[in-house]
Specification:
Number of helices: 4
Strand content: 25-35%
Radius of gyration: 20 Å
Number of domains: 1
Order of helices and strands: HEEEHHEEHE
Length: 152
């Protein structure tokens, strides 16, 4: 019976073709993969592959855990808009290449600053902009730690 070996060969060829295909890079603002947040716990990361953008990549971690994905439709875009709204005169984002800050996402869809604000003017502006303009979904209510890698 030639029927079975032909189908088996075809199935194997399809499987090899799927394995050989390379995955496309993440889209701007799309979750990339799990990253290690500043606290050493796992978070969800995203990359920004646009020239001229201030923020190159970000990682978000929530406490309680597991709410990072609920923030992904909102947070990368909100961070991008905040970074565009927070220019620094010398163009170096206050001399930093990495920014880490914490917010609380509330059940009524707001971000609230958590802890003392940074003395870095760029980081302070990012947090203030997210507090005034960010709209997290109610399902994402948690303590949120954000780490951003900046282009310098």
């Amino acid at each position: 019976m030639m029927f079975l070996p032909t189908h088996l060969a075809c199935a194997l060829s399809c499987m090899l073709a799927l394995v050989a295909c390379r995955r496309e890079p993440p889209q701007t603002g799309a979750p990339s993969h799990e990253e290690t947040a500043p606290s050493g716990q796992t978070g969800v990361g995203w990359r920004v592959d646009l020239p001229g953008e201030v923020v190159r990549a970000g990682v978000v971690h929530t406490t309680p855990g597991g709410r990072e994905e609920a923030l992904m439709p909102v947070l990368p875009g909100a961070v991008r808009h905040a970074a565009q709204a927070c220019p620094v005169d010398d163009g170096t984002q206050g001399g930093v290449s990495r920014v880490v800050f914490a917010l609380d996402a509330t059940t009524d869809g707001r971000f609230v600053a958590s802890g003392p604000l940074s003395t870095n003017p760029f980081e302070r502006c990012l947090v203030e902009h997210l507090v005034h303009n960010g709209r997290p979904p109610a399902a994402a209510a948690a303590h949120v730690t954000v780490q951003l890698q900046l282009n310098r």
